[in-house]
Amino acid sequence: MKRFYSYQSILNFINTYSILVALGSLSSYLFFSNLFDVKPNYVLASGLSLSMWIIYTLDHLLDGLGIGKNASSIRHREHFLRQKQIIRWIISGSIIIIGLSFWVPRVYYSYVLFLSILTFLHFCINYFLSRKYKFLRYLKEIFVALVVTIGFVVTPLIGNEVSLNLPQLTYIFIIFYFINLSNLLIFSFYDRDRDQRDNMLTIAHLYSRSKFRSLIYLGIGISMIMLIISYINCHLTSIIFFVFVSMQLTLLCITIFSSYFKFNDRYRFFGDLIYFYPIVVFPSLG
Hints:
Elements lengths: L1 H15 L2 H17 L6 H26 L6 H8 L1 H19 L7 H20 L11 H15 L11 H32 L11 H24 L5 H19 L1 H4 L4 H8 L4 H8 L1
Helix pairs in contact: 2-3, 2-13, 3-4, 3-5, 6-7, 7-8, 8-9, 8-10, 8-12, 9-10
């Protein structure tokens, strides 16, 4: 019994404080750098990883502050109860990112500014927009998936003179976008009841459970179809294909076996874990 509670505590800690988000960001950046055959900038990779953690943490913090100590989800409740400590972490992380910026080539500055504007727009839509435009909040998953895809897929190409294969980039962007979108929709699907209790309306509340689940299947299906087409057209190696299909099958399993993955928020752990898959095949990518 003690081991079970230890496992549960570790899982809750990882989910609550977005640990896999940070590690997965680093893993994904290195993965796409290798895919496009460019030399990774490890300072930029560290900044990207830390930035993703800050964005997710700030998102959970603002949700927690809006709901209060009676939040239904552990992550929102923890971020509310430990708000002072978490704010200090966010400030410290931001200072580190500013420090890292002095070691990043200037060619990245305008690109980072572009991503920052998109991120700021996300927070404005979800937390500061007038109720008159509340419908835009239902587009959160669509917008976030786009920003994450740009951040992971495009970042390795900035500042690198590579022979760009536009069809390959297009296929990869679409494949990864629908992986990200499906993942976010899965989170909304599992959080549906708790969000409703906390008066947080998401895209999951626009549809019945069965229709929303079908929407998730559609996103995964589009990603799979694009992956098969790109592989047939020799835009991807077998190893890269294996990484993407592993992500897709994981999301499919999370969607199908809801009774298992809803327990203790396993869906969130395994959903974030897919961005860590490239680490497993790195020795084969060289």
